[in-house]
Amino acid sequence: MTETQLGGSPLVTFEWTDFNFFKEKFINKITNDYKPNEIQSNVAKTTKHNLWESNFDYLNDEIFFPLKLWLMETSQIYINQKTNKNYRFVITESWAHVTDFGGYHAPHYHPHSTWSGVFYLTTTYTGANTWYMTYNEPKPGLEFLIDTYSIYPKEGMLALFPSHILHDAQPFLEKNSPRIILSFNAVCL
């Protein structure tokens, strides 16, 4: 686990040690479902360019059960340790993205959820996710605050973050293979 603070909000990464056992099966499922430039969720279509987005129940497919269980358990343990509470972590929406050359996702946040996550299935050197602290102007005495933070995809890594943080997916500029991720929104009950 690695934790970074962005203006007081945590951005946390975890690595799933069992990923290689499932990687090929997951990628095959996603690439079989892939439809170029189609936004099946019908959500925020104008913020997404040259990518496929599945419906918002993607992790409900039984093939992803081991991953979904790990995402929920890992997130719940982290949040309960951080808050000293006993929350139940519930994934409310989940989707896949396949981003082709030149594709990106404009800055956005995820309303109506508490936590969000990105799970990286492929490693890429472009197309980082960047999170932004939104404030009007930098002020003397606050130089120590980190106002942006970027994560470059690493296979089998989860990036977990509070849903209210503005973030994007930078342009993907690799021609040989697409960027493949699974994302989710969740609440604590």
Structure description:
With 189 residues, the chain is of the alpha+beta class. The protein has a single domain, classed as Jelly Rolls. The protein has 2 helices and 10 strands. It has helices spanning 19-33, 65-83; strands spanning 2-6, 9-15, 48-53, 89-108, 115-120, 129-132, 148-151, 157-162, 166-169, 179-188. Strands 1, 2, 3, 4, 5, 6, 7, 8, 9 and 10 form a 10-stranded antiparallel β-sheet that branches. A hairpin with a 2-residue loop joins strand 1 and strand 2. The chain is globular, with a radius of gyration of 16 Å. The model has no long low-confidence stretch (mean pLDDT 94).
Helix content: 10-25%
Q: What is the level 1 CATH name?
A: Mainly Beta
The rounded distance between the terminal residues' Cα atoms is 23 Å
> What's the total count of β strands?
10
The coarse silhouette is globular
The H/E string reads EEHEHEEEEEEE
| Number of H- or I-type helical stretches | 2
Largest sheet: 10 strands, antiparallel
Structural class: alpha+beta
CATH superfamily: q2cbj1_9rhob like domain
**How many domains in all?**
1
The CATH architecture is: Sandwich
Q: Hey, roughly how much beta strand do the residues contain?
A: 35-45%
Please identify the oligomeric state.
single chain
Enter the CATH topology name: Jelly Rolls
| CA-atom Rg in angstroms | 16 Å
Spans of 5+ residues with little confidence (pLDDT < 50)? none
Average residue pLDDT: 94
